[in-house]
C-alpha cells in the first residue's frame, strides 16, 4: 500500500498505509522476505492462510467509467490454503 501511496501521491492511500502499519508487528530482520512474491498471511481458527495477489489497472479512452479502475485478486499461495478454499 505504501508503494501505491508514494506513486499516486494520494493522501487517502498514505493514511491507509499508516493505519495498516499500526496493526502490524515490527518484523524481525531475519524474517523479512526478499523473494519476488510476498505473501499475505491471515490466521483463521489457528490455521495460517497464505495468499499472493495480482493486480491490474484498466485504462481506456472510450469509457470514462472504467478509467483508472484497479482490480486486485488474491490467490492461494500454498496447498493448505488451496485445500481450505476447495472445501464446499
Q: What general outline do the C-alpha atoms trace?
A: flat
The value of Rg in angstroms is: 16 Å
User: How would you sum up the major sheet?
Assistant: 3 strands, antiparallel
H/I helix tally: 3
Which consecutive residue ranges, at least 5 long each, have pLDDT under 50? none
Order of helices and strands: HHEEEH
Structural account:
This protein has helices spanning 2-8, 11-23, 79-86; strands at residues 40-44, 47-57, 70-76. Helix 1 (2-8) packs antiparallel against helix 2. It has a 3-stranded antiparallel sheet with strand order 1-2-3. The model has no long low-confidence stretch (mean pLDDT 79). It has 88 residues and is α+β, with helices and mostly antiparallel strands. The relative contact order is 0.13. 32% of the residues lie in helices and 26% in strands. It is flat.
Quick synopsis:
The protein is of the alpha+beta class and 88 residues long.
Give me the secondary-structure topology.
Blueprint: H1 2-8, H2 11-23, E1 40-44, E2 47-57, E3 70-76, H3 79-86
Antiparallel strand pairs: 1-2, 2-3
Entry keywords:
88 residues, alpha+beta, three-stranded antiparallel beta sheet, 3 strands, 32% helix
